[in-house]
Amino acid sequence: MSLASFAWHCGATLAAPLLPAWLRLRQRRGKELAARLPERRGLGAARPPGPLLWLHAASIGETLSLLPVLDALTARAPALTILLTTGTVTSATLLDRRLSPALRSQVIHRFIPLDVPAWVASFLDAWRPDAAGLVESELWPNLIRAARARRIPLVLINGRLSARSAARWRLAPALGRELMAAFTLVLAQGPADAARFAALGAREVRAPGNLKEAAPPLPADPAALAALQAAIGPRPVVLGAATHPGEEAMLIAAHRLLAPEFPGLLTILAPRHPERGAALATEAGTLPTLRRSTGALPGPETAIYIADTLGELGLLYRLARLALVGGSLVPHGGQNPLEPARLGCPILLGPNTANFADIAARLLAAGGVRLVIPPEPGALAGAIRTVLSNPDHGRNLADAAAAAIAPAATLPDEVAKALLHLMPQARDEDRSTPDAH
């Protein structure tokens, strides 16, 4: 055990008596479910008989990327049970909405235990997974060490390691090597991620592509879509999707600049954190503003419509003439530009796209996005003007983005095959094959 790993182990153990109070505080804030708090301590297991594959996704984006893999796994292994853990209430809500009846019979959801040695041990000893896949960058030292100690084969799925994160890992190289040694296989999002994982100490690294490119299009409730379409009519709609503080002000300023040129212009603000809806309504000032959380639909005079709700981006992308993908005009790193690409919505991006650097670069190279540089209201208004005044330009952007992500269609099945190859039956077959060694 490295010194850093030992320190983490001791720190988590010492913190354990305080964590239940912290969890209750999170529950009062809506970030935990009271009835399911025991799961965060590794309790509540109900392992069914037969093969069990454990997958872990941190939150909504990672969970969405797994949905096609779940379909591929259950198609290839009808007797398989999948234990899917996540760390947020919103991801649990998403699964409740998005799992098909067929998947519900094979997928069990639980919240991941906090990375306390005793709690992780309770979780693993009760569930006894045959193999496990952790998504993107979920490198919890106690969890990974405990899985390795129990000889559970581990795969890092859709692995992401930014240059900034890699630099931080260089401060604790022994811990990085220790964690990477636990993984049988790392499936990285791209060549740059793969190189960083290899430098960190991963034994076998492949770069098949980014699972987020293969996720299904975001859904939309047909009745809600029809109601909004009827309320908006032929008005031009600009969407700020998953926006962060500072971006809404730029969109509001751009709206003021463009409204005289585009009669009926409607700007929809969908903040990344919906609880900011009331503050954004105040920020809109004298512009006629409505909030979706109140149940209101935009009227003919509505200029700013604040979509302060969860799980409706699929609806909004279908309404918009173009969408600014949030987190890119401010130093956040950007939200997922693949969601509008899958729905044929022309994309605007600011310069801050570190969270999706490879995807943003590929979309830009294909002509599938329009950049807003510098990230200020005048440049934003200019980019919006170009798309709204030239429908062919918008269609070309959307078509190029769709073509750029099309090759990822087979990726979920590749990931499913790699995971199933680590299950006991596949390992036994490998050992019985004469040339297995």
Structural description of this entry:
The chain has 437 residues and is α/β, with parallel strands linked by helices. The protein folds into 2 domains: 3-209, 3-Deoxy-D-manno-octulosonic-acid transferase, N-terminal domain (Rossmann fold, 3-Layer(aba) Sandwich); 222-408, Glycogen Phosphorylase B (Rossmann fold), CATH 3.40.50.2000. The chain is built from 20 helices and 14 strands. It has helices at 3-15, 19-28, 60-76, 89-98, 101-104, 117-127, 141-149, 163-169, 173-181, 191-200, 222-232, 247-258, 277-283, 313-319, 338-342, 357-365, 377-389, 391-405, 411-420, 424-432; strands at 52-56, 81-86, 107-111, 131-135, 154-159, 183-188, 205-206, 237-243, 266-271, 289-291, 304-306, 322-325, 347-349, 370-371. It has a 7-stranded parallel sheet, sandwiched between helices. A 7-stranded parallel sheet has the order 10-11-9-8-12-13-14, sandwiched between helices.
Search tags:
alpha/beta, 14% strand, Rossmann fold, single chain, 7-stranded parallel β-sheet, 437 residues
List the helices and strands and how they pair.
Layout: H1 3-15, H2 19-28, E1 52-56, H3 60-76, E2 81-86, H4 89-98, H5 101-104, E3 107-111, H6 117-127, E4 131-135, H7 141-149, E5 154-159, H8 163-169, H9 173-181, E6 183-188, H10 191-200, E7 205-206, H11 222-232, E8 237-243, H12 247-258, E9 266-271, H13 277-283, E10 289-291, E11 304-306, H14 313-319, E12 322-325, H15 338-342, E13 347-349, H16 357-365, E14 370-371, H17 377-389, H18 391-405, H19 411-420, H20 424-432
Parallel strand pairs: 1-2, 1-4, 2-3, 4-5, 5-6, 6-7, 8-9, 8-12, 9-11, 10-11, 12-13, 13-14
